Amino acid sequence: MTALLETKGLKAFYGDFQALFGVDITVAEGETIAIIGANGAGKTTLMRALSGVLTNAPDSVFCRGEAVGALAAPDILARGIAMVSEGRRLFPSLTVEENLMIGAYGKRRGAWTLATVYDLFPILKERRANPATALSGGQQQMVAIGRALMANPDVLLCDEISLGLAPVVVRDIYAAFPRIRESGAAIVIVEQDIGQALKVANRVYCMMEGRITLSGRPEALSRAAIHAAYFGAQSHDHS
Amino acid sequence: QNAAIKLGYVSPQTGPLAAFGEADSFVIDAFLMAAKAKGLNYEIIVKDSQSNPNRAAEVAKQLIVDDEVNLMLVASTPETTNPVATTAEAEGMPCISTVAPWQPWFIGQQGNPGDPASWKPFDYAFHFFWGLEDVIAVFTNMWAQVETNKKVGGLFPNDGDGNAWGDKVVGFPPVLEKMGYSLNDPGRYQNMTDDFSAQINAFKAGQCEIITGVVIPPDFTTFWNQAKQQGFVPKVASIGKALLFPQAVEALGNAGHNLSSEVWWSPSHPFKSSLTGETSAEVAAAFTKTTGRPWTQPIGFAHALFELAVDALTRAEDPTDGDAVAAAIAATRLDTLVGPIAWDGKGLPPFAAKNIAKTPLVGGQWRLKDGGGYDLVITDNKTAPNIPTGGTMEAIA
Amino acid sequence: MTILDTIVQGVLLGGLYALFAAGLSLVFGIMRLVNLAHGDLIVLAAFLILVLVNGLGLNPFLAVLIVMPLMFIAGYALQAVLLNRTLGKDVLPPLLVTFGLSIVLQNALLEGFSADSRRISAGALETASINLGAVTIGLMPLMAFLSAVAVIVGLNLLIYRTALGRAFRATSDDPVTAGLMGIRPRQVFAVATGLAMAVVAIAALYLGTRANFDPTAGPARLIYAFEAVIIGGLGSLWGTLAGGVILGVAQTLGAAVNPEWQILSGHLAFLAVLLIRPRGLFPRAVD
Amino acid sequence: MSLLQLDSVSKRFGALTVADAISLTVENGEALGIIGPNGAGKSTLFNLITGTIAPDSGAIRFAGADVTRTPPMARCLSGMGRTFQIPQPFEKLTVFENLLVAGSFGARRSEADAYDHCAEILVETGLIDKANVPAGGLSLLQRKRLELARALATEPRLLLLDEIAGGLTEGECQALVATIRAIHAKGVAVIWIEHVLHALTSVVERLLVLHFGRVIGIGAPAEIMASRDVQEIYLGIEI
Amino acid sequence: MTIAIPSLKVETRTRASSVSRLIALAVLALGLAAPFLVSRGAVQDLFFILTMLVLAQSWNLLAGYAGLISVGQQVFVGFGAYAMFGAVILFGIDPIPAILIAGVLSALLAIPTAFFTFRLYGPYFAIGTWVVAEVVRLLLAQWKTLGGGTGTSLPREAVRDMAGVGLLRDLFGMKPAQASDAITYWLALILAAATIGFIYRLLRSKQGLGLAAVRDNEQAARAVGVDARRMKAMVYLATAFMTGLAGALIYVQKARISPDAAFSVTDWTAYVIFIVVIGGIGTIEGPILGVILFFLLQNLLADYGSWYLLMLGLAGILTMLFAPRGLWGAFSDRTGIQLFPVRRTLVGGPSVHQGGSSHG
Ligand SMILES: Nc1ncnc2c1ncn2[C@@H]1O[C@H](COP(=O)(O)OP(=O)(O)OP(=O)(O)O)[C@@H](O)[C@H]1O
Ligand SMILES: Nc1ncnc2c1ncn2[C@@H]1O[C@H](COP(=O)(O)OP(=O)(O)OP(=O)(O)O)[C@@H](O)[C@H]1O
Ligand SMILES: [Mg+2]
Ligand SMILES: [Mg+2]
């Protein structure tokens, strides 16, 4: 069976700086994957490559067996891959509701509508007419997730959704994940908050300097190995 | 066979003033043919000023220095004639210029136009056309045919023509006052102005029944429409420049009816070419036949320019010597397609006597034709009784 | 009550300027593109209307309805083929390319239509007016003003009430993230320029009926349009209308003092606004 | 008298508070480390100190003078040298010329006077081999080194370093630590933002933890690292 | 710890630049002799080329090095020209010192205009400069003693009796017109050489280094102690001075002025921008190449009227799209040749390699 989303020897460059050195990951239908790694490991770069913000060699990314590496973001979205960007990146000149509605610009139909997103994050309904940037960080993150859901994705890519948020708020946001999974979407989360990541994920990849250095089911990974991978020292003897 | 005599000719053939240069190639082709028939060997080097004064000066230099012409000819608006004449004068190159009232031409080339004591005549630059005193006479004669309150509104832009027409010394104001007209002049406006409500309000307040001025076509359209919208309809509107060309009047739609203007040349002018013997009517007809376009006033003057060139160069002792040619020009007595021309100072103040020759001027009104389009009808000839009128002045409805 | 009339005439004139500026404001607001050929595009549209009016004997208001989609297509193509390539951090390429375009357009029109000054005839409407006692309002200027208001209301509805408008604003905020929403920024930009050109067609109608125009009449209009946009503030269409009105009133008031000051007063008003509020009167919060 | 003194400095971006009444004193010749999760406001704090952004309230004193409103240029001339987290080289100038700009303007020397000094720094920071290469052609790691070298060329009394150790190999990291120690040993005060904790703690005398723009701990590194709060917030690991 | 690098040296010259230094001297010498060697027409063509070169180099310094994209430089051409006319007509000053006065006055005008335009950035700045130019044009058009909107001509004697004309007539038997051509030409040559020399020196100085830093990254430049604002203001002032001198000189030769001509956007800014862009922005060589191309194009196509301008517009668009660094930029990128190098190359020292990629 072909994977929902798969990379084969994915490389990425910023000018002459290489950020990814042959990354292989697979995402199956309905699965939740966590990608962890230290600052600058290349996690965001991987997300950008998957979502079409960075274009790649055509045969380095596959979606249901189709080579999509060279497609631009709107085409990737049309194949059911949506992303919540690092730093949320809401549109400041749009209101909360407009930010959500623009997520549906691609007109993919499914379970997620304004009503169901408001149901998932009720606070947003109260603040629907506010400019998106007037919300607290946690609420903004909800908008960002809701906006991606509005595209009714098959794969939801989430880059550091706990970034800069208090642990309580992070917990609230993660509380929404079971509902998202119920809608059938596979989820890829990038997290520095390892505790959260391990709690929700079925499988974990650990990245280091543009390579996957460790992967497996969360319960199978030793804390020492992850800790080492996280801080970059003496990590190579695990994996 | 002698080497050909070289004439340099500068006029605006492209750009906003291109309507003035429209007849050039027709006139030049006809001239070369006539010259050949007479056994004269002339070469004409034509340069396009692109309606740009910088460019006009530049091409004049090229004609003098690179092409080594024997005589410089230039026509159409002070924006073209002045830079060329200034250059020719500085280079010691004889130059004949036309189609610009003589005041903006002469005074506009003086270092300090505001100080008549400092004005100096030129040695090489000569000009033939009418002057403001003529256009004032023509306009007031036309106005006299219509019953009015003698209150006049003036539209004078801040450009070569406008400043001369509105000048307190040489322009309209002193003469009109003397003749019992009161002039309401709100001040110089910039060309390409989008709104004339200030002027219209001033004219309304001053109860002006007559409008005059020297306006570029786009501005006149703006003004005239706005005036009608504001319910301001004078009995007479005599406007220079804007109403020269039939296309410009046609652009006004029906609102052009009975607008009046100065007429410096028309097919009914009773003059003949000294070169070809053709009458005005014949030249105009030939133009329409060749180009398919209605006749325009510059045709006659462009033609006369070449008549004068041939005449002066034939009489000059040495056509390649600038001073000799200048002397020959100064001594001209020639009956041309636009009337008799002599730089004899007739009708001119002393300072301009040497460099200016005047041509006759009459006044006319544009009349809607039955089948559409306009006719220019000469309505006043008191200034030049030998030019026949085609009708009398009518007030604007 | 001449002063009242002066102000009313200035406001109406401002409507015309706002109409010139509305398309520019749209494009400027969405992609920070300064289109120096905007004035020439207005003249191009005026010639297209003229061809239809003279050639087919159409009513000018009908002709505009035909020219609007034509100009939309031209604008779309212009953006897609040429201008999209110039967008980026550097301000030089768009300025230069549109500047080059301006020269190309002017001279192509000269070749095609000669330098004659032309006019679109609107028949009796041209001189019709409404008399309100102290002031008399010309029908065409009033229609120009109302058209400006209608265009701005229409564009605002589009921008704030439709999916396309949301896409405009989102792309303007952040093209990369907009791409993640399925929006193709280049296509959105092309549509925006197309719309701007459709508005240009309306502006052309009033330019062509108010005064004569010729192929070189563009740049003189451009500068007012820019001033209106900048006075109003980037991205605010109502601001653009206000900017146009400020310019128009400054001009008529200046002219009431002395016609010499007419155009100068407009420019000076512009500089004064810049001095007090460098980002315009109603700047967008985020930029 | 302290070298740098922040007095209840606050900064908000819209609804987001990135510096919340931060008070802080740095003595002459001191080395201070700053840690905190992504988006905590660390770089913003640098921007406030160096004048790239102005605080909404509070005061900043440097070397005895109130610099709250002075422009970055003047603060550099009075002795602040900084690196940018995202390197900002003068791309069309060579590495050597990049240093010359700093060495002649920042250190107020004539150009010729700056030659030797700049060449020395190139040697010190291991960039001498790249001296004549345009900075635009450098890799990211080299760019980060250039940031350091350029900051040094201004001959600062206070050196502000923003995440310059990320992505280095163990050996390179040790070399960097040695370089910074050497600078520090000359009496230059250092403030260093870093995620690579072992490198940071081997240089700094005090550690400051920033979270949500608030100082949540400051003290000796060992003490700070041992604190429960810090472990939970910074590492996100629930103990 | 200090590391001694005994053999360290900083070089700024390349082989090409030594050659070009010789060529430059030869060209200059030949240029000085030109009025005796070539026809008057050629001298006038050279005058045109040289004055356009000065305008182009100034605009290039402003836009290419200081990042200040102005479409209003005609304000300094026109103001310089009017200042010269004023000095000659109203105060009876000889045209040559009047040119200098015009340059100084133009630089002074730059102070109030900078006050407005420096509040603006990017495209706003461009439009702002244009409006300022319009304002100055409209104001000067009100100045009746210098002809208002009509314009005026230089008194014939002023040019004919200009300093040096008598000397040339006595020495070489030149006619006054020819002599004044020669004098204005020499002034143009000196001005062009001085402009290039000034810009080159500036770029090789510490200030030039700072300017390059500001151009590459203004924020970082400020952070290392470069006063970006002052730097830009200085460049703006210097270009105003040079442009004003050129404007005055051009109008000594034209001898006739009007506001529309002297403040023409097309003649004094559009052409100049095309020259710089087609030749290569941000290089000293670019405008030189550009002005020669422009001259050739103008001569080849001038008789085609609007087609010529149409082609020029197209050439500008195509260059911007496909060779944004201009013809010289493309050439230099490919060959590494620079006639006016400004690189400081570090040579010698313990482990410096004299690597090949010393061109940027
Ligand atoms: N636009 C860019 N230009 C140049 N280099 C970049 C760019 N974006 C990222 N990099 C570099 O690429 C490498 C990988 O960065 P990336 O953002 O993917 O890391 P990350 O794992 O997401 O880190 P973080 O935890 O900080 O988000 C880093 O060294 C980073 O500095
Ligand atoms: N100019 C700005 N406008 C709006 N928000 C900003 C601006 N600069 C920073 N921020 C926001 O302020 C917060 C703090 O940013 P800052 O760069 O200071 O974090 P940091 O602690 O340095 O993080 P990192 O570890 O990722 O470098 C972030 O949420 C960031 O998005
Ligand atoms: Mg990341
Ligand atoms: Mg940071």
TrEMBL record, chain A:
Keywords: Amino-acid transport, ATP-binding, Nucleotide-binding, Transport
Keyword Transport attributed: yes
InterPro entries tied to this protein: AAA+_ATPase, ABC_transporter-like_ATP-bd, ABC_transporter-like_CS, BCAA_Transport_ATP-bd_LivF, P-loop_NTPase
Segments forming domain ABC transporter: 5-234
GO molecular function: ATP binding
Parts forming coiled coils: none
Superkingdom of origin: Bacteria
Matches recorded under Pfam families: ABC_tran
PANTHER family (UniProt xref): HIGH-AFFINITY BRANCHED-CHAIN AMINO ACID TRANSPORT ATP-BINDING PROTEIN (PTHR43820:SF5), HIGH-AFFINITY BRANCHED-CHAIN AMINO ACID TRANSPORT ATP-BINDING PROTEIN LIVF (PTHR43820)
Family from the record: Belongs to the ABC transporter superfamily.
Name of protein: ABC transporter ATP-binding protein
Organism: Shinella lacus
Automatic annotation (TrEMBL), chain C:
Keywords: Amino-acid transport, Cell membrane, Membrane, Transmembrane, Transmembrane helix, Transport
Major subcellular site: membrane
Segments crossing the lipid bilayer: 6-29, 41-58, 64-84, 130-159, 188-208, 228-249
Topology term for the membrane: Multi-pass membrane protein
Subcellular locations according to the entry: Cell membrane
UniProt family annotation: Belongs to the binding-protein-dependent transport system permease family. LivHM subfamily.
Name this polypeptide is given: Branched-chain amino acid ABC transporter permease
Species name: Shinella lacus
TrEMBL record, chain D:
Statement: the UniProt record of this protein carries the keyword Transport: yes
Entry keyword set: ATP-binding, Nucleotide-binding, Transport
UniProt xrefs under InterPro entries: AAA+_ATPase, ABC_AA/LPS_Transport, ABC_transporter-like_ATP-bd, P-loop_NTPase
Entries under SUPFAM superfamilies matching the protein: P-loop containing nucleoside triphosphate hydrolases
Keyword Cell wall biogenesis/degradation: no
GO MF term set: ATP binding
ABC transporter domain residues: 4-237
Protein name (record): ABC transporter ATP-binding protein
Organismal lineage: Bacteria, Pseudomonadati, Pseudomonadota, Alphaproteobacteria, Hyphomicrobiales
TrEMBL record, chain E:
Transmembrane regions: 21-40, 46-68, 75-93, 99-118, 183-203, 233-252, 272-297, 304-323
Annotated localization: Cell membrane
InterPro entries, per the entry: ABC_transp_permease, LivM-like
Pfam families: BPD_transp_2
Keywords: Cell membrane, Membrane, Transmembrane, Transmembrane helix
Membrane topology: Multi-pass membrane protein
PANTHER family in the record: ABC TRANSPORTER ATP-BINDING PROTEIN, HIGH-AFFINITY BRANCHED-CHAIN AMINO ACID TRANSPORT SYSTEM PERMEASE
Protein's recorded name: Branched-chain amino acid ABC transporter permease
